[in-house]
Design a protein that fits this description.
- This protein is of the alpha+beta class.
- It is about 45% helix and about 25% strand.
- It has one domain: Nuclear Transport Factor 2, Chain: A.
- The strands form 2 sheets. Strands 3-4-5 form a 3-stranded antiparallel sheet.
- The radius of gyration is 16 Å and the shape is globular.
């Protein structure tokens, strides 16, 4: 009973947080498209497709590494990830924060896969 109650409370909290953000469906669809494109860039070995997921002054904050900012550093990250065998990444959005009409923070989890679609990594992310 306690487990069911906790699950129900978690689901309700999640729904309330999403409803507070009031993000238009078109914006959610755009973000979802970019998330999918990110994985496709690795599957197609297409660094241009990867860069199109970012603003020109974007930064990647990889674990145990300095901030990787700008197109040159984003490309270094892409090549390093591709060289590890990553051929897809799937993002699962958990929440949205601070929607302003121009900006929103997306929180979620990701799973990385190799060419045989075997999992090779997983983690959490924030995207602004």
């Amino acid at each position: 009973m306690t487990s069911c109650l906790c699950t129900l409370l978690t689901m309700i909290t999640h729904m309330l947080l999403r409803s507070q953000a009031k993000i238009p469906e078109a914006d959610i669809q755009s973000i979802t498209r970019i998330n999918k494109q990110y994985g496709e860039a690795f599957a197609k070995n297409d660094s241009t497709l990867f860069l199109d997921c970012y603003a020109t002054d974007a930064c990647i904050l990889a674990p145990n590494a300095p901030a990787l900012c700008g197109e040159k550093m984003l490309l270094l990250f892409y090549k390093a990830a591709h060289n590890t065998g990553m051929r897809n990444i799937v993002f699962t959005t958990a929440n949205w924060y601070g929607y302003t009409g121009d900006y929103v923070t997306e929180q979620g989890t990701y799973r990385q896969f190799d060419a045989n679609n075997a999992p090779i990594g997983a983690g959490k992310y924030l995207v602004v």
